[in-house]
Amino acid sequence: MSNQKNNIPRATLKRLPLYYRLVNQLHEKGIDRVNSKTISEALDIDSASIRRDFSYFGELGKKGYGYNVESLLEFFKSKISERDTIKIGLVGVGNLGKALLSYNFSIHDEMLITEAFDVRDEVIGQQIGNVIVNDMQDLQKVLKKADLDVVILTTPGPAAQEAADQLVQSDVKGIMNFTPVRIDVPDDVSVHQIDLGIELQSLLFFMNNLRNNS
């Protein structure tokens, strides 16, 4: 099974959350089954790609029937985490960090920020949302007890690598990096880079391209 996971294309893995969100919505509406055509129209992904994506995980559906929504939902949940609630940490309680703590994935009950860390005295000890901010010096001690799945990094850029090093030393295996700095981590640590500046520039390029071709 581990070899199969390693052979799954990155593009497929990036689409899995989209499938999961749609299947969850269908389940909440009481819909029992769905086919690749319906998924394709809802997500604007061609049916062949959907069937190919699903094929990496074995027989998820049946020809002529489609996919059982409840079975798909349980499958995607198992691929995200073996636990019902995914515990998340946050390092860097600036404006973005505070916004994430206040929002705290409220539309995703299975994901919750449970720990936050900062180096500033004026922030340490504050309660933001339901989370009390810890001193960064206590990171390793807290993480040993917290059993987190992933940590969100929202520090200033110059502090990103040092914070990442501390997370690696605390055996964190997943980091979502909101800083503009590319961090270096061992091969067994997964990093997802979220650069808001790059995303905004990409949007502007797409807008200008559409305008020039219209």
From TrEMBL:
<feature type="DNA-binding region" description="H-T-H motif">
    <location>
        <begin position="18"/>
        <end position="57"/>
    </location>
</feature>
<dbReference type="Pfam" id="PF06971">
    <property type="entry name" value="Put_DNA-bind_N"/>
</dbReference>
<comment type="subunit">
    <text>Homodimer.</text>
</comment>
<dbReference type="GO" id="GO:0003700">
    <property type="term" value="F:DNA-binding transcription factor activity"/>
</dbReference>
<keyword id="KW-0678">Repressor</keyword>
<dbReference type="GO" id="GO:0051775">
    <property type="term" value="P:response to redox state"/>
</dbReference>
<dbReference type="InterPro" id="IPR003781">
    <property type="entry name" value="CoA-bd"/>
</dbReference>
<comment type="function">
    <text>Modulates transcription in response to changes in cellular NADH/NAD(+) redox state.</text>
</comment>
<dbReference type="InterPro" id="IPR036388">
    <property type="entry name" value="WH-like_DNA-bd_sf"/>
</dbReference>
<keyword id="KW-0805">Transcription regulation</keyword>
<dbReference type="InterPro" id="IPR036291">
    <property type="entry name" value="NAD(P)-bd_dom_sf"/>
</dbReference>
<comment type="similarity">
    <text>Belongs to the transcriptional regulatory Rex family.</text>
</comment>
<keyword id="KW-0238">DNA-binding</keyword>
<feature type="domain" description="CoA-binding">
    <location>
        <begin position="81"/>
        <end position="182"/>
    </location>
</feature>
<dbReference type="InterPro" id="IPR058203">
    <property type="entry name" value="Rex_bacilli-type"/>
</dbReference>
<dbReference type="GO" id="GO:0045892">
    <property type="term" value="P:negative regulation of DNA-templated transcription"/>
</dbReference>
<dbReference type="Pfam" id="PF02629">
    <property type="entry name" value="CoA_binding"/>
</dbReference>
<protein>
    <recommendedName>
        <fullName>Redox-sensing transcriptional repressor Rex</fullName>
    </recommendedName>
</protein>
<feature type="binding site">
    <location>
        <begin position="92"/>
        <end position="97"/>
    </location>
    <ligand>
        <name>NAD(+)</name>
    </ligand>
</feature>
<dbReference type="InterPro" id="IPR022876">
    <property type="entry name" value="Tscrpt_rep_Rex"/>
</dbReference>
<keyword id="KW-0963">Cytoplasm</keyword>
<keyword id="KW-0804">Transcription</keyword>
<dbReference type="GO" id="GO:0003677">
    <property type="term" value="F:DNA binding"/>
</dbReference>
<dbReference type="InterPro" id="IPR036390">
    <property type="entry name" value="WH_DNA-bd_sf"/>
</dbReference>
<dbReference type="InterPro" id="IPR009718">
    <property type="entry name" value="Rex_DNA-bd_C_dom"/>
</dbReference>
<keyword id="KW-0520">NAD</keyword>
<dbReference type="GO" id="GO:0005737">
    <property type="term" value="C:cytoplasm"/>
</dbReference>
